[in-house]
Amino acid sequence: MKNLILLLASIAILPQVDGEIPNSISCTPKQCYTAFEIRASFQTAVDMCEKIDGHLMSVRYSASNDAMGELLRDAEGEFWIGLQFNGNGCTDTSRLRRYVWITGDTLTNFTNWSDGDSEPFCAPTCVSVSRDLKWKGRSCDKIMDGFLCEHDRTKVCAPLEPRETDESVHYITPFGNEGEGPTMLPMGSVVTGRPSGVKHICTPDGVWLRAPWSCEVLNGGCEHKCVTKTPQCTCPAGTALQRNNITCTPNDACVNLGCEQLCLAGACLCRDGYELLADGKGCRDKDECRDTMICPNSNCVNTIVTPTSNYTKDVTSAVTAGGLLGITVCVVLMILIIVFLAHQISRRRSSWNIACMLKSPGEDLQDLQQVTTQKYTKKSSFVNRNVKQDT
Length: 391
What we know:
alpha+beta, elongated
């Protein structure tokens, strides 16, 4: 708890310089540095760095020089650093050439003086740098394009790598800087995993603490309300706490998950024939041949599942587009033939019914008598022919 209170105090004394957020930040294991693209004289730059609990940057080691290179990678113009002429003569052959760090000492294991483009020594000059990182003497009253601050009273946390379920991390520092990717950050920085939403804060011990943390510090990292006793995040009515324990979603936990296929109780699932991707949302075809329980021998053919349905097909017997067209034509022809035959049968039955309806009962009797007479006549003729043959 003591460390978290110290963290709260540290965050409180890091106001922004005149409302400006540093253009860049870079940290080594021992300190952090910030770059401000604010036009200022040397003394104005000194005052501004002190407002955010720092001082103008000292470049005593090659590691500091590397950090300065990160700060100025995309910068234009010249920036003040914390080195100024001490005014005690012009014949000093030391590495700092009668210059002194803003902290009042001359300790250094590194220099990078420019051979040219510097104002004369033995004058009230201060040192500026640009993207070439060369030290150049300039009149201390000159207005430079910006300045570099050093924060050596802050603890630094090692880069926090994304969790297995996250694709990236997003960070925000106490100075207001935001960015993507793992990097060393000062205490009070908050890193959020994406898409999980899991948060960590850099503590004064130089370690990452997962949210929810003490409610007095940035609301414990909670999206809604932090309960101080545990600490624990709570959500308003109609919403539920997500698995990251800090953010709230509608009671239907599946609403904002973005599952590709199925969702159950806040977890993404896949249909038969698919397996879940590493992001916990997407699905891909499952190669059943890798499962020895399903395919115990080498005679295995994987089935391909279409992305839009549960329909499966064997890759060795797929129907070609031409074959499918031929089947379609045959089916259409058979349907047309059946319709034609049904139509013809219907017409014949209709004509028979009409003929029967037009005949009267008397006509039917005459037709019967005529048929009977014809049969009798044919029989008599047959008998007469037989008699003639006997005579």
